[in-house]
Amino acid sequence: MQYDFDKHVERRGTDCLKYDGLFQMLGRSDVMPLWVADMDFETPPFVVRSIEQRLKQRVLGYTLPPASFYKSIINWMERRHSVCLKAEDIHFVPGIVPAVHHAVCAFTEKGDKILIQPPVYHPFAHIIYINERTRVENPLQVVNGRFEMDFDDLEQKLPGCKLMILCNPHNPGGRVWPLDVLQRVAKLCHKHGVKVLSDEIHSDMALRGHCYTPFVNTCPEAREIALTMNAPSKVFNMPGVVVSYCYSLSPTIRERYFTFLDQADVALGNIFSYGCLQACYTEEGEEWLQQMLDYTQGNIKMVESFLGVHCPKIKPMHPEASFLIFLDNREMPFASAEEMREFYLGKAHLYLNEGQTFGKGGEKFMRLNVALPRAELASALQQLQQAYIGIGA
Ligand SMILES: Cc1ncc(COP(=O)(O)O)c(C=O)c1O
Description:
Elements: H1 17-26, E1 32-33, H2 45-55, H3 67-81, E2 90-93, H4 96-107, E3 113-116, H5 123-130, E4 134-137, E5 141-143, E6 146-148, H6 151-157, E7 161-167, H7 179-191, E8 195-199, H8 220-225, E9 226-230, E10 244-247, H9 251-263, H10 271-280, H11 283-310, E11 315-317, E12 324-328, H12 337-347, E13 350-351, E14 353-354, E15 365-369, H13 374-390
Parallel strand pairs: 1-13, 3-4, 3-7, 7-8, 8-9
Antiparallel strand pairs: 2-10, 5-6, 9-10, 11-12, 12-15, 14-15
Helix pairs in contact: 2-10, 3-10, 4-5, 4-9, 11-13
The chain binds pyridoxal-5'-phosphate.
Pyridoxal-5'-phosphate binds next to α4.
């Protein structure tokens, strides 16, 4: 089946965060939302069908994850990523952000050190802060236009940490961490007794030419220290369904974390979640995913070519995965974050995620979401070009 990613889907007036939430925040409707990481493409029909199917059962009571839920994850992870799991290695979680929160509570005490690599998905820092843990930062470095890890700094900072939160592939930089990099992380963390919580929600969206490596597959050390989070929700554009899972090959990590989840009473998903995951983790799902990635790749290419010609001082960091582009504005004549905001929002009428939200190193960046029909993305680029000309950059 050929899916139509050019189709405009009207999301305004559906209480969606991306459009209606932005309107509530800004009080204006003339701004194109290119921020929060969900897609403007239609959620795949097999997801919708799965919900319709479930509705035919006339009781929407508490529902256990069926054996087929685990089987789908096991098959998907084995076929696509060569991760060998058993059902007992896997646990449902009601969203990765809550699951990271629970992991922080399960594995650390107040004041304990947790390492992150900014700029990175911002809830990590927030979760550390609200739980009164100590944030240790190993900032990523921009080298030849992409993020690299600073291992000298990491080696200095890991001793004394209890946990490292890894983002693989990386959001907002779109980096698919190579095997050797992940191996170094695993060996260092193992040496210093640091557990690794690996958030791999973007893993199924590696773009052409890039190969995602599950952290747990990198070396024997990684198997002993890793707790991995994953989900079909972002990939198949159904984050509102809330269906995520975690897995670990370490019996000690599983015992501690899974018990914690069960005691916190967050072990059950909503009744639609299990079926939605199973509908996605199929050949049909794989076909949709490939078409979505091909389309997204086309959008990324369009942004890169357009900016190169019309806005050459805005440099896109080439994403190796997912549908987010981190735009480097370091050559733009902005004296402050306010000036950069005024340019994108006030002049171009575009709302992107500000790079500073993701922490140190993100200050001069903006994160652009390109998962929208190409014609609409083209309009956004025109608006950007007009603003660019307007300030004489
Ligand atoms: C790295 C990363 N982790 C987690 C999430 C959100 O996951 P969930 O909706 O399951 O909480 C996102 C959403 O953008 C993300 O980019």
